Write the structure tokens for this entry.
Amino acid sequence: MNHEETADRRTFCRRYCHSFGRFPQPLCLKVEKSAAQPAKAKGVWIDVRSAEEFKEGHLQGALNIPHDQIVDRIKSVSPDKNAPVNLYCRSGRRAEAALTELKKAGYTNVTNHGGYEDLVKKGLK
């Protein structure tokens, strides 16, 4: 759902739901919030930070492969070079370095999702 759709939904709820008493405000706001949460991309998720950083917090289901070990260890996790591989780190810099190395190794469907804290703020868990 993009920004305009969210704004349209909010306007609709303010005009119709609350004006005519059809829904209490908390129900309407709950619908807006759940619709705005992003879906987690399909494929393997790899946290390319250090093991220590990974232990401090990571996305559910993510694997930890430090960026400097990605090429040596990726085949055991994702042998299909066309399968989706999702990378993140603290800021996106190490994930970008890992992405570059994976592309050199022939992986075609690799995405740098940036920093862990930003992903959590977006609603990913």
